[in-house]
DNA sequence: CGATAAACGAGACGGTACGTCTTGTCTTACG
DNA sequence: CGTAAGACAAGACGTACCGTCTCGTTTATCG
């Protein structure tokens, strides 16, 4: 009589339930916030048994994570604008990022996602692989284009470049340590480009 | 029947209880982690009634926060080393910061503190005022010294400078998105100093 | 260093506080019922420190008890009507008792008192001595008068007689096991008088 | 968000938990007395979650009540002895009742039950229907037999008769207003039978 | 009259228990 | 066998009171 939990058979998984759970999760995060999100409420809202959630996800955080992953599923083929002017292009992108952070609609869910990732190394790994990775690759592609155009040092560390560009915004937003304005976006870009100049 | 909650009288507060609570909180975070920290356990460990906690703190997060605040109480008169060489000084400081982040002893508590701050705007404000503020001021003082020495542009935005220096580390650590090595510390300093050059 | 609790000095007792406590107790029993009565609420309502209650009373029940005792303080010199007709006199008295039980104003407090007495042998003893005793004596005096008039057996056990008269009412009221009507009162008197006939 | 409390589904109720709760309740009343009985302790002793108690019972009193109800479940087919001599039979029964009241083992639980009933009209109604009703019916049946035998007036009010017989005992016991002896039992029976004579 | 000691109001304290909420597991009935 | 439903054991939540323990502040004798 083995007490090893049988693994569920993925082929029999109900797609309808899965979708309902992810959608209910997104709704509830917007409505009550992440701190007050409960598995109980997700199951009720999704019209699903709690066991169905526990069968397919390790933790509440994993559900939250997947509910975001599902959103950005079709967004793979993303590419940053490339007008040939790296400064203009980056400012546009960073300003857009700032605007997104400032949008109160995204505030709660993105914060929930980030707290979950910061708490759970497994989710962080998934996050890097499934979400951040592809996006970062697209960003680095634009930087490589700038390298080819001689606007950025050929030997620049592009991972570090991305961190210099995005981390200040991220930190300000997460810790609410200062205003996120377009001017701030521009200033960051200006500084980072100066650091990366050939 | 007034629903206005009576405010506790701070003059009658038991210092012994306050200390016991903060200490118990620190111990428990180290032992069971922040996610499993409960007010009930804090009270039990501190030999204190739960009401004594709820009387003086708004939330579990506020207790956690204060338990850290208490630690760094005497650290006000801090000042960064100033050998006259801003690059060497910054590299030393940033390498030290990286080492601190890597120390597994501090990992759990600092992460707990950061999650708490990221979740609660009130605590974030307190954090800036009581903890980050003074520390940042000391850091900026060192940068001002570099400005006077002509090593950094006289009109540099020092708040932004700090963010460029520290946010990449912070992000890597929080999201575990990359290794935190002395080399990385040096690279960040090199880039930022290039951006700030007169 | 004796840990024997100093006994309070009765001569210094604040009559104003004592009255306020007893009055607040009576009010609160009427308002929230006995089950939800708390020492905390009594103290608050009376504008009195909790210690002042604990200094002078052993328990909440003792306060409740005293609050009733205080009411019936001046009622010592009571005597039952004596028209010479024991049947008519008893019916009048028992009907009055029934009416008192039925009065919703007295319902809650009397019930509280009785529950307290039933729970606490000490209070029961006090009750017999200070409240029930004198009243019963007056009732027995009327029965003795009936004995002298030859309406009741000369050797009747008057304590038993009182119980036969009052206990049926008491039980019906306490357990709500039947209606308390004037007809019921008369029926009880009729039966008991038959049992006591010479 | 409906505030209507979901009703539990009685078909899924765990009989094992129900029994454990009722048994733990009986044990605890005997051990610590009714006043110090707590839902928390019942749940712990029964190895049951508190919610399982609150799911199926309105109040602590209801649990106490049911724990007694459960005891006297099979006792329906009760009948009083009928030797043809109503006086002897009643004396035997009333003496037995007196003895039961005097038994210290039953003292605490029965008192708890009575206090609960006296406090809560709902429980009182249940008590009459489920416990007192059947028992009283059996007693009245014996009295009817006496009526047929011409030992008691044919038109006697049997409910009143029962109250005259039992209420004096009940009152003495509950208020501890006098000793409960076999002689007392006999005296009550003698008086009541005199009152009921044809 | 002024010292001093007790009772006083206020309310913080260590605790217990409350009744509710959520977690993760288990059971039942259906498809 | 996955599922919706939901009961279950466990235990934390935040609140209400308990009875004890300081705090100053009256108050009321007594030196």
Automatic annotation (TrEMBL), chains A, B, C, D:
InterPro entries: Homeodomain-like_sf, HTH-type_TetR-like_transc_reg, HTH_TetR, Tet_transcr_reg_TetR-rel_C_sf, TetR_C
The UniProt record lists the keyword DNA-binding: yes
DNA-binding in keyword set: yes
PROSITE patterns assigned: HTH_TETR_2
UniProt keyword annotations, A-Z: DNA-binding, Transcription, Transcription regulation
Domain of life, per lineage: Bacteria
DNA-binding region: 38-57
SUPFAM superfamilies in alphabetical order: Homeodomain-like, Tetracyclin repressor-like, C-terminal domain
Official protein name in the record: TetR/AcrR family transcriptional regulator
HTH tetR-type domain ranges (all copies): 15-75
GO molecular function, one term: transcription cis-regulatory region binding
């Amino acid at each position: 009589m083995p007490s090893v939990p049988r693994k569920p058979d993925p082929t029999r998984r109900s797609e309808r339930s899965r979708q309902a759970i992810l959608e209910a999760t997104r709704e509830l995060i917007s409505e009550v916030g992440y701190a007050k999100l409960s598995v109980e409420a997700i199951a009720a809202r999704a019209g699903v048994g709690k066991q169905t959630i526990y069968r397919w996800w390790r933790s509440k955080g994993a559900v939250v994570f997947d509910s975001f992953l599902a959103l950005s599923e079709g967004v793979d083929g993303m590419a940053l604008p490339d007008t040939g002017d790296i400064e203009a292009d980056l400012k546009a992108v960073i300003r857009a990022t700032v605007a997104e952070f400032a949008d109160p609609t995204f505030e709660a869910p993105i914060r929930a996602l980030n707290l979950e990732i910061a708490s759970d190394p497994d989710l962080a790994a998934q996050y890097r692989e499934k979400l951040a990775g592809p996006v970062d690759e697209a960003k680095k592609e634009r930087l490589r284009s700038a390298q080819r155009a001689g606007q950025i040092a050929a030997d620049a560390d592009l991972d570090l470049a991305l961190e210099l560009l995005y981390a200040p915004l991220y930190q300000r937003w997460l810790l609410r340590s200062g205003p996120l304005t377009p001017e701030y976006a521009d200033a960051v870009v200006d500084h980072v480009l100066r650091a990366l100049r050939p």
